[in-house]
4-coumarate--CoA ligase
Amino acid sequence: MRAAAASAIRRLLPRYSTSGSSLSHSHLDNQTRYYFNPHWDYSNRLARPRTLLNFSPCHPRGSLPSPPPPPPAAAVPAAASLLFFSSLSGTEEGEEEEVVVLDMEAGTVRCAANHAPLSPISFIERAAAVYGARPAVVYGDRRHTWAETRGRCLRVAAALATRFGVARGDVVAVLSPNVPAMYELHFAVPMAGAVLCTFNTRHDAAMVSVLLKHSGAKVFLVESNLLDVGRAALKRLGESNSAALPVLLTISDDTDSDDYEDLVRNAPDRFDIRWPADELDPISLNYTSGTTSRPKGVVYSHRGAYLNTIATVLAYDITAMPTYLWTVPMFHCNGWNLPWGVAMQGGTNVCLRHFTAGVIFDSIARHGVTHMGGAPTVLNMIANAPPADRMPLPGPVRVMTGGAPPPPRVLFAVEELGFVVYHIYGLTETYGPATVCTWMPEWDALPAEHRARLKARQGFHHIAMQDADVKNPTTMECVPHDGETVGEVMFRGNTVMSGYYKDLKATKESMAGGWLHTGDLAVRHPDGYIELKDRAKDIIISGGENISSIEVESVIFSHPAVLEAAVVARPDDHWGETPCAFVKLKDGASATEAEIISFCRERLPHYMAPKTVVFEDMPKTSTGKTQKFVLRDKARAMGSLTKIASSKM
Ligand SMILES: Nc1ncnc2c1ncn2[C@@H]1O[C@H](COP(=O)(O)OP(=O)(O)OP(=O)(O)O)[C@@H](O)[C@H]1O
């Protein structure tokens, strides 16, 4: 629908398809012209109209003309509301400025002076003005200031628009690790009025071609090390698709053979940023991790991205001019909004193509990193870094973790090294971070293990999310705050996605009853904190008892020989299912199946302890999540434990 709306806007107002608007407001006149207000239900004559009219400075105070009577419903042209939205985006030189009368006894208005569509583009505009000479992007020997970065983004936007015909609402796809171009595209693509779609760098050509087709990308930027995948994806797309293929552009460290640098070098000198016509215009299209199913295309708006950026920056205590180390992939929920967040605070982005624990410690020492992020696997990597790779931290380093349940033992271990962990939880559907485990100062005095257990809880919604709750999905009643009753986590608010791309049915289903249904199962503690127990798909039901795989994993993680653990259901003829643990041991460590099982039985009710333990590497998504569906398939293939045992007898 939004695509249809966008093309209708283009037809109605050709100015938006070419140069964009300049946000200048020069002409105010006495002529009053009314537009239909999309917020006014014309079929309901009792609804109080809020009128859009031309502002006239000559109207004496309190004497704005009374609004016209509502037109008959049939007379409202379908395009009227589109005209309304587009007219709010600012006026060109010589055009009229429109004002919405909000009323408050006919004294309040919405106009360019007091309303602009919220957009993260404004963060880089401000960063260039305030922090212009300060470093924005560091990558190897490369350094760009904020003034340079803003200029480069604008030139890329100009080149995309003028050389490749990228128009408002077009999708620009990117397959790249965290190199400077990937950072800049988070601003350049929205500046061109287009929608940024970043792909998971671990996808194979088949998946990339499916996503290219689904997204309808017009331009496809691929980092040089991923060119084989990119080219193979385009080849597959060409074989299965009659539509025009996206233009392929390369991103390379070798600036001489880099299409991206060519865009920067050969862009037109002048380009007006295409600010969103409406703050709900899409800014990005993010495919989910595909942990439980085929990735879904989640649409973010400028408004949601703006709000979630501010909320994330606040939740994570990012004050002015931080140094941020890029260990969260920018392709995942737009790097948890922090390409925009670091600009908001005029910080320095330390970009990395790949990293190990050694690279992390080295970068922290070299650049004075103050903030970084990472899934619990990254924390685990830090906690288990070989002594030769470790370096003392130059100061406190704040690490935001999320994306998967952080085992308390891992939280404990990284905090021992001097990191300060912030635990956030969210989904692609909530622009990444949606809750934060808000830390209470009185908890500092608790024993370390208790602190880690408290920090492993997911907490409360952040300030931009209206509400988070744990509900019975059938009755929609809230679960009691008893730390035991399990329900589904649900969200509502301004940082819930606009919807699934091209899938209105799935969008409506996901938001049934006025809440976003997450599929995550949780309890609420007496202090109100939410604690995740499992994904609905991952819970194990054994002899009628629900077993939280997260709880069993936390215990296995606390075994000194264990590096990683994941627990899934193994079908069982007698119990229905039994817990089956997949375990990866630390280098040089050893443990047997019987040892792990008895370790768990000493710390958990016996029915929760795994009945099977398999020692092997974990299959992972590139966002560091264990692919439990792969492990479930393996456990299923093992067959019923009870049957095997009884046949042995
Ligand atoms: N802090 C956290 N603690 C526990 N689980 C978390 C945390 N953060 C995220 N998650 C898990 O990650 C999920 C969101 O992941 P994401 O949106 O990246 O895609 P996915 O759900 O893994 O993929 P798909 O929906 O395609 O299966 C949440 O629903 C939750 O299960």
